[in-house]
Amino acid sequence: MARITAGVASSHIPALGAASDLDKTQEDYWRPAFAGYEWTKRWEAEQRPDVVVLVYNDHASAFDMRIIPTFAIGCAEAFQPADEGWGPRPVPVVKGHPDLAWHIAQSCILDEFDMTIINEMDVDHGLTVPLTMMFGKPAEWPCRVIPLAVNVVTYPPPSGNRCWALGEAIARAVASFEEDLNVQIWGTGGMSHQLQGPRAGLINQEWDNRFIDGLVGSSDALRSIPHIEYLRETGSEGIEMVMWLIMRGALGRETRLLHRHYHVPASNTAVGHVVLEPVGDAPDVPASDTIEANSPAAQDLIS
Amino acid sequence: MTVPRDIHAYLGAFDDIPGTRVFTAKRARQGYQLNQFAMSLMKPDNRERWRADERAYLDQWPLSDDQKQAVLDRDYNRLLDLGGNIYFLSKIFSTDGKSFLLAVSTMSGMSLEDYQAMMIAGGRSPEGMRSIKEGR
């Protein structure tokens, strides 16, 4: 059976991708930001996940304002790096895992999460920068990746509570996939940053670190943080941290901290990075209480 | 976990954050064509037509006169007020060859050098910037 073995969260700052692409990671300004990922690179090389479910937001690359899906799952065979205006990043093509992606989509829909299914899209820095930070610059990415795009641009974005619950539904979906796969879930984006208006440049280190602390252990207090608190305390784009809660929800009731890293400055955004694992053999998520998720006939249709 | 939420109170609170324009449905509606215009600059052909004659290119889009003028002026705070969203508007300053850092600094009213220095020193403190009404 497939199983979620770990969760990883990280900011997905475009300038970090550019620093890697241009081999500037050892410059004085960038070195401390990259140093916090060295542990994770070594750990990922040992873990060798088969699939990463990578939660991120598109930055006006694949989606414009014509269609704004709240939760969209990439079911394609492959996803090309997007051209964000300077040409595509020189990184490998992202290979998907359509069987698992479709399975998660079906399972989540029966679990009353109304996923948007995406069969063609390019993936921008929101997805490719975290891959760079965890895997460096390989000739091809060492695992399959299922992109899960979340709207955190047009209001309202999903609530933190909804994101946490989606993570639980993803964990249930993965656990019911028959192939033996080592799956990780990553939540990307954030931490504190504001890229617009006279308040631009806001950074709240104290709040960010408290948020990281809250991901560890058994508390689910983070799921009740309202949008307005993210906006007031962490800047308008700090709302991206709700995506970390999808990762956290998928790890179940209790997590153990494996690694954490926090650094300012890096461009306009605080660099936050954390690696967690579920306590126990598998994520201990509550059973679904939906009708279809408890219907053997409905579940037979997706297996 | 789910608590009843008053949508008016939810939206109203966004107006209480100093120096911040939240991309609500009202702004999304007002800025739809503006943001789609900005997105059109993702295509090289469109960028060429835009560079050749900005005004003529803009006139092909059903934007208000205020929106057109703010685009020509590169007045990003005004564009946010008129329904622009920074991720879409970034296509305009990218086409100009300007960085995110530079564009963001112009919105903050600081010089690029001062803004950069503030970020290197740890960024803008939230102290006094959380709520207009409560002054905290």
With strands numbered from the N-terminus, the spatial order across the biggest sheet of chain A is 6-3-7-2-8-1-10-9
Estimated radius of gyration of chain B: 17 Å
Helix content of chain B: 55-70%
Biggest β-sheet description of chain B: none
Mean pLDDT over the full residue set of chain A: 97
- In whole angstroms, the N-to-C terminal distance of chain A is 12 Å
**Uncertain runs of chain B with pLDDT below 50, 5 residues or more?**
none
Low-confidence parts of chain A: none
Largest sheet of chain A: 8 strands, mixed
Compute the number of helices of chain B.
Answer: 10
- Average pLDDT for all residues of chain B: 95
Global Rg of chain A: 18 Å
Global geometry of chain A: globular
User: Strand pairing plus helix content of chain B: what structural class?
Assistant: mainly alpha
Note the run of SSEs of chain A as H and E: EHHHEEEEHEHEHEHHHEEH
Q: How many beta-strand segments of chain A?
A: 10
